[in-house]
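I have a small job for you when you get a moment. Would you make up a two-line entry for one protein for me to read? No commentary is needed, just the two lines. Write everything out right here, beneath this request.
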Amino acid sequence: MLVIDSAAAELRIRPYVIETPVLLSRRLSELSDAQVFLKLENLQHTGSFKVRGATHKLLSLNPAQAARGVLAASSGGNHALAVAATGVKLGIATEVFVPKSIDAVRRRKIEASGAQVQLVEGDPLRAEQTARREGELSGREYVSPYNDADVIAGQGTIAVELLRQLPRLDAVFVAVGGGGLIGGIGAYLKQTAPTTQIVGCWPTNSPVLFECLRAGKIIEVAEQPTVSVSTAGGLEAGSVTFPLAQRVIDRKVLVSEDEIVAVLRRLYREDSQLVEGAAGVAAAAFIKVAAEYAGKTVAILLCGANADAQLVERIKAA
């Protein structure tokens, strides 16, 4: 069985990441008659939870691996940015592969952080496959955005913090892409707080792991454009996150693009949190089923802040 030790990972990465706060959302709490807390990973270094997994992975390299440098791939840019920034901090050269369709602002952020950027034709999965193949050819370590036990353990450090901050936690809502985030959080909570419900949340336009779980195997899933660019993209064949997701996810919720944008506006106006589409997926999923959590203590993971300019305009629109 895959070993995910987020307690050890939390100790290892503590000097390098922020212990992000939880914020009681009064409006969401009133709406649901629950205690609803927002876990503010949008305040994390590089504006995303991804720096946790990237830091843990790079700290896990031996000296020879670190000297050769690393490669990474990313759908919306958050993982690439995290690997690049962490590489600079630790003195490890990084090269990242991203789809040509990546937002120009995110691309410039990655380049400014010190990484060499390679643009790849096709979808995010193609970028992952290209980076992994280049790693095999060059002898450099490939840092997967999700398909790696060290990365998953790093993402699971969020759950370690949550249980320090909220000793009672009845449910946690998490947006799902490749499954590394919910896999890490779920693995830790199943061991330490087994009564906590793990809720996976997807945009209807990009429900890749959702459909794989429904099929009982990893399959190709057709996707439509989504504001949740950080969760978009296919799943690698044989990904370790698939059986992990099967084991830890207790409930699945799909949300529409309109529901995502509506909750992004609500978070901005009512909680003063300007966040990216993937963060809105988790919050929109909670609102969709809020009545079922009356009297409960719930955490919603706001996984990132890196919304592109067009989405920011939509969020701030009257």
